[in-house]
């Protein structure tokens, strides 16, 4: 017989170590990335089953990118690799995904008559909204960061301005 684990014991290693922490799953960013991944996968499956199979590459790429960022943020890779400005990369990914999903959803709904294409188009419009919400939130974070960065060092800007004035003389 196995003995029950004490209440404060750490979970055993195994598949649970691959799951993201509960705090990240409950966060707004975690939920948005999870929704983007799930929607992109559903859209990918719909395009495979439809006459509009030529559109399947965009949802596949967005699924893989959202899944990568989901696990990167969950495992805190963004804190380990400081060379990449993660919010900017995430913002650009969300903007391009929203535009691409909107365009291919219009094409899938208007040009193709089968049910799978129509379903992919409807899920694409939903994904457009989810990606737009994500890039709006990420944009607000970027603006806050840039305002903090520009107001932190006014002395540095003065010395740069003085250097450029002396060079032009």
UniProtKB/TrEMBL annotation:
Its main location: membrane. The chain crosses the membrane at residues 32-50, 86-108, 120-139. The keyword Transmembrane helix applies. Residues 149-169 are annotated as: Disordered. InterPro entries: Marvel (IPR008253), MARVEL-CKLF_proteins (IPR050578). Keywords: Membrane, Transmembrane, Transmembrane helix. It is found in: Membrane. Residues 24-143 form the MARVEL domain. It is a multi-pass membrane protein. GO terms for cellular component: membrane. It holds the Pfam family MARVEL. Signal peptide: none annotated. The keyword Cytoplasm does not apply. This is CKLF3 protein. It comes from Caloenas nicobarica. The gene is Cmtm3.
């Amino acid at each position: 017989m196995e003995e029950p684990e004490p209440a404060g014991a750490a979970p055993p290693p195994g598949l649970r170590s691959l799951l993201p922490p509960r705090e990240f799953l409950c966060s707004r960013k975690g939920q948005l990335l999870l929704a983007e991944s799930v929607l992109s996968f559903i859209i990918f499956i719909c395009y495979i089953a439809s006459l509009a199979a030529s559109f399947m590459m965009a949802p596949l790429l967005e699924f893989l990118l959202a899944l990568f960022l989901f696990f990167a943020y969950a495992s805190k890779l963004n804190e380990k690799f400081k060379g990449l400005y993660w919010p900017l990369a995430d913002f650009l990914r969300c903007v391009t995904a929203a535009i691409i999903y909107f365009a291919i959803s219009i094409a899938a709904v208007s040009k193709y008559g089968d049910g799978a294409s129509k379903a992919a188009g409807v899920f694409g419009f939903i994904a457009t909204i989810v990606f737009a919400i994500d890039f709006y939130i990420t944009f607000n974070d970027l603006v806050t960061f840039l305002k903090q960065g520009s107001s932190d060092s006014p002395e540095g800007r003065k010395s740069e301005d003085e250097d450029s004035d002396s060079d032009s003389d």
